[in-house]
Each structure stands twice: as structure tokens, then as C-alpha cells.
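The protein record filed here:
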Amino acid sequence: MSGGETNRVSSRQSPIRSSRFFQKCPCKSLLRGQSRDGSQLLPQGAPMSSTTLSNTAVGQSSAARWVALAVLFLTLAMSFFDLTCANIALPSIRKGLGLSEAASSWVLAGYALAYALSLVPGGRLGDRYGHKWMFLLGTLLYVLTGIGVSLASDERHLVVFRLLHGVAGGLMIPSIAALIQVMFHGAERARAFGFYAFVVAFAALFGPIIGGWIIETVGMENGWRWALAYGLSLGVLAILLGVPTLPGKSSTAEGLGRFDLLGSILMSLAVVGFFVPLIQISNGQVAWWASISAIAAVLLLIVFIFWEGRLERNNAFPLLPLSLFKETTFSFGLASAFLTFASFTGSIYIAFAVIWQSGRGEGALAAALVILPFSLGSSIGPLVGDRLAHMLKRWVIPASLLMLSCGYLVSYLILRADPHVSPAVLIVPLSIAGFGSGVFFSLNMASTLLTVAGRNAGSAVGMLVTVQRIGAALGSAIVILLISQPGPGGPQDFGPETMLRTGTSSVLLCALLAGAALVISVIEVLGTRGRARLQS
């Protein structure tokens, strides 16, 4: 295919490139895979050097690359089936194992936190030793730890295996995006990442439904075991097919320098110090040592900042270049992503699972179906995000967050007025909220990376995905904290009325988090316009 033909195909594949919103800013070059300085940017979750571009699909035919992509998507679907099923299965787990409030938080928020902490190191290890082998190792560990989760006999074993499960996921997922970058280029790469988004949306949509049906069929006491195990067969298949089909020449270690082990340890300890007190909840109360842990985390964060700054001044390769935060689009993008993911990745699903199962006494399948409009809206949003960007220009992201927060707020008001309302009444507000979340997810990365130079793209993408996961962990932990508050009848008052009240309050919390993200995005847009006027 000639260069002109390639350009024509690329423009047809990505209508968003012709959007006036992106023509008014350097983002058009970012969508071609470049930063403002013309250097190569990277796709989601794959810290890589430019060496990758010279290794595109070495020795692979076009058909072989698409077969390898299908193998990668088996693991991607497995991980998102597991993530969404865990949310819907929480009431079943609590009944089957008699989980405490603290263990319930660790099952969800602990998994998300372990996943987030291993994302950047997992990507860097793949750069050095080869993404094929990190993918296979991560998938193998994910399957083994998933089996351990399903066979757990008490809450201690369950929590340990869920944490290891999260670490395995963090080692596995970055290599999926990295291998796509290695195997494809041009219009094919854009098409491959489009399929990536579709697989995520598909798994998030049907994961809760399948999991809810399994729990209904097997029973509340042990149904969660089968719901969390059914997707692991996809991982086994991916390992068997991945060895002969995935490209082995996918290491990008040249020029990366030494791995910033100290920086990784400092960042991990700081984040754990902030989150462990929030996750370790007992009877609705935060542990007495929470303040000590928070102070230690602040001190570790200060040391981390000094260390990263020292590496950057010495032209080394820090885990996180601090110069990234001088760009307002990057800083504001991270902040809005943090709050938005806290509002819809896990937390809203937990809230409705508690309302429908623990409050209304309905089954897991009914709880999954009531949140289905949100999932459908989330899958439709990315398909029309570019058209909205054409119409709304800079205001497209604030508009998406407005839809998300208003959809949540209307749902809260409906449930507060009548907790036993028909699910049909919630279809419209939940669909609007889901649509807003989908539009935000599809455009937030391009906006956040707008001013990032190519040499820092890997760190920037890794940081963005990590912030998304930490936000999800925080949102899940706070919702668990809310539903752990007993009713007026005493410390043991966790009856249906109490669960309806705390579950409905959790929906309001999601609305407030999305509203805070909306405020941040509006401030960023207004600030950008103000700077543009000064420069003109």
C-alpha cells in the first residue's frame, strides 16, 4: 500500500482526526501517534521506547498478527470478566465466607490497589525482558491465583489470593498494549486498539450478567466461586496459543537505562500507606493507626519526589519524570481521571448490588440487569465521542462529566424517594450516566497526553493508567465504608432498611465524585482559553 493510500485509510479509520476540536490543538498529531515535537507517543498502558517502532511484526504475516491479537484478547476479556464479576459477587462472598467489613474492602479495593501498583513496573519489566514472556507469565500467575481465590476456605486466604491476583493482572495487562504496538502500525494499529476498546466494553457489559446468572443458578453460598472461576479457561487457552503465535522479539530495553527500583518501592509504600487504613475497616470505623500510616505515607512521598527529581536532573530514567506535572493539561487530566474512575469503576456497581440484593432482597441477576443501561451507555459513548468533540470542541469532556454526574444525581433522587422503584424508571438516568462515562473514557487520554513530549510518553501513560486504578480502589473502599455503617438499631443493625439507606447514599457519593471531576475539567478549559487569549 502506498503512502497516499495509507493516509486515506487512516483518515477514514479515525473520523476524530478531522474534528475541529482537535484541529484547534496539537492533539491531531497525538492521534497519529506523535507528540507536539514529532516524536512517537504510545498507546494505553505500555511504557516503551521508540525502539519498538523498528520491531513491528518482525517475521509475522498479516494473518498471523491478527491471530496473535485474538490470543491477547482472550486474556483481556478474562481480566475484565473477573473484575466486573467480583463486584456483583460481593454479597454472595460475604454470605458464603462470613466476610468482615475489612475483608470485604480488601477483596475489591485491595485487588484494585495491587493491580495499580504493579502496572508501571510490569510495563518496564516487559520492556527489558520481552513483552511476550511477561504476558505469558502474568497470564499464568493470574490463572493460578484465580484458582486460589475460587478455592479459598476463609477470608484470610481469600484476601491473600485476591492481592496476588491483582499483582498478576498488573504484570499482564501492560504487555497486551505493548504487543499490539509491536505487531501493528498505521491504520492496522488504530483498528487493533479499536477492537481492544470493544473487548473491554463487551466484558464489562456481560461480565455482571453472566456472573449474576451463575450465582442465581448455583446459590448464594457458593455461587461466587463459579462466577469468579468461569473466565479462567480463557487464560489457559491464551497460554497454549500464545507460545507459538506471539512475537518473541518484543523487548525494548535499548536505551532505557536501569530500572528505577528505589522509586518503585517508595511510590508503592506511599500509596499503600494512604490506602491500607481506608481498606482496613472494622464496624464502620477506620483503624486507630490510620493517622500514623498517613503521616508515614506523606514522608515517603516527599522522599520519592526528591529522588525522582534527582534522577531527572542527572539525565537518568526516573519512574515518574516530575516535569510532566508542569503541563496543566496533564495535571488536570490526571485529577479528573482519578475522581471519575472513583465514581464509576466498581463503586456504582457495588452500590446497586447492595441496594438490590441486601436491601430489596432480590437476586444477583436482578442486580446485574438493573445496572445494564449504564453498561450499555458506556459501550456506546466511545463510538460517538469524536462527533461530540466536533460539536462541543473544548467542552466535550466537561459535557461528558455533566451527563455522568446528572445521571447519578437523578438516580439518587429516584431511589431516595422510593427505594423499591421499578428498575424501568432508572433506565434513562443510568443510560445517560453510562454514556457520559464512555465519552469521557474515550477522550480523556488524548486530552491528558496533549502536551506530553514523546520521550516521556511511556511514563505519562503508565501514570495515567495507575491513577485510574487507584481512583477505582478509592471509590470502592469509600463505598464499602458507607455500607459498613450500622443503622439506628445498634452495631448489628444491617437489615434491609439500613442497606437501602447506605446503598442509596453511595449513589450520591458517586454523583459528588463525578461533580468534582466536572469542576476540575471546567477550570482547565477556562484556564486554557485564558492562556490562549494572553498568547494572542
About this structure: Confidence is low (pLDDT under 50) at residues 1-58, 250-254. The longest strand covers residues 281-282.
